[in-house]
Design goal:
Length: 161
């Protein structure tokens, strides 16, 4: 019995709901990788994911030290003063060694590659944000329904981060 023919991935649509460093970079790396492979990529920033494109916050993202089992430290230690800053600085140093750009530069790379970026209308309203508060080169503000319309078509894949 032969394996079924696999349809190629044509479009990757990522939903970013949290703006911790580990979530934002996972999303950006996946989107960038898709573009490098010739796959369309789009990112929908919702709820706290909006901080990744909020001009005032995008370069001040942190590592989640509380409730993160991958930190391998007790939750009580993760919540101690200075732990989040320490973990964030350590992560940023490791990323610099690998020449991973800061968030603002990565956003520019994604834009230049043709990655589409959308802010969630409901989250924008909820957090009292306006388009002028966001990274200048986002493609616009969409409702969830508008985002789903963009996902239509064979070969589209949605990924929640």
């Amino acid at each position: 019995m032969s394996e079924p023919k696999k349809a190629p991935v044509k479009k990757l649509l990522l939903i970013l709901s949290k703006a911790t460093i580990e979530n934002v970079y996972a999303c950006f790396i996946l989107a960038n990788g898709a573009r490098m492979e010739g796959i369309e990529a789009e990112i929908f920033y919702t709820f706290f994911g909006l901080e990744a494109i909020n001009k005032k916050k995008l370069n001040d993202l942190h590592v989640a030290t509380v409730g993160n089992p991958a930190m391998h430290i007790p939750t009580i230690l993760g919540g101690m003063p200075g732990m989040e800053a320490l973990a964030t600085n350590m992560m940023k140093k490791e990323m610099e060694k690998l020449d991973i750009p800061p968030v603002d530069e990565f956003l520019e790379m994604l834009t230049a590659s043709g990655c589409k970026m959308w802010a969630c209308k409901l989250a924008m309203d909820m957090f009292h944000l306006e388009e002028k508060d966001l990274y200048d080169d986002i493609d616009g503000v969409l409702t969830v329904g508008g985002f789903y319309e963009r996902a239509a078509g064979e070969g589209s894949h949605l990924m929640f981060i």
